[in-house]
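Page 47, continued from p. 46.
Same chain as before, 366 aa.
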Amino acid sequence: MSHIMIAILVSGGLFSFLAVIMVIADNTIADYGEVKITVNNDEELKVEGGKPLLKTLMEEDIFIPSACGGRGSCGLCKVKVNTDIGGYLPTETPWIEEEEQKENIRLSCQIKVKQDVEIEIPEEYLNVKEFETKVAGIRDLTHDIKEITLKLIEPETIEFKAGQFIQLRVPEYKLTDEPVYRAYSMASSPSRKNEIELEIRYVPEGICTTYAHNYLKEGDKVIINGPYGEFYLRDNDRDIIFIAGGSGMAPIKSIITFMAEENIQRKAKYFFGARSQKDLFLVDRMKEFEEKLSNFEFVPALSDPEENSNWEGETGLITEIVDKYLESGENKEAYLCGSPGMIKACVEVLTDNGIPDELIYFDEFG
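Result:
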């Protein structure tokens, strides 16, 4: 038995070694020369072969949404590939449904441009722009969330829907040897066309969050691109359920600000989950919205309030609080922003209370 185990370990090690060699060879030795990308049967791009499709398109000023910056962990950067480029990679299949595979939908961050290829992308992606901005302000919202205000330089204005997101480029620094992109929802109103606000929560060793919290300074130049996303308020008369936690506040704040500016008096409840009082922020701003919007109610809830605190609000998991307040799902739609686990749990509560899946819109982040 020991000889069999040794043989298995040796074989496994050999295969792993060969896999590493193949990756190194593909990245350093292989020369694919100039290849052609045809976009939507119209535009032809002549590019250097060998790079991921997502990065190659970005270098040609065609921006595909990618919340994870090309790590294959968000599933957003989907494109239709009309050329045979080989089978699906293990890093793609968790994100691409069976029906999508039949239509040759691929993750652009995972496939490399090694030959002439024809792709199809939504026309709106061709209208996404890159913006040069300057950091106009940085302030602490909580112990681990910063609000960063970016003033647009070129172009000077941006058009977006409340709830959409941009991608922020982090330059080379201690944690990365090349520029990387991360997605952040805009917290400001679309009416402020010459600047945007971001709410960035610190994640230890996170490339972008570490840069934003520990390196970024007022006056620094920052490159962004956008806008992206289908997370925005639908135009109807349904009652609204908002649910968020942490920096998930950003797109919800943008939508509620838009509602206040446009005097949209739909009935709405905003459930915001936090661990303790130190994790709550913009409470006064939400109270101002309650005064401007007669049918709007802000319901913060703490899952673990500090002992001997003066907290008099709701206590418990946000799913418990939503279930407590939600009498029925009739004539309601919901907008959720938070971690995948929070989103999944909230969707279950909402559907159990009668809100159809197709009326639950969410923006999830890892």
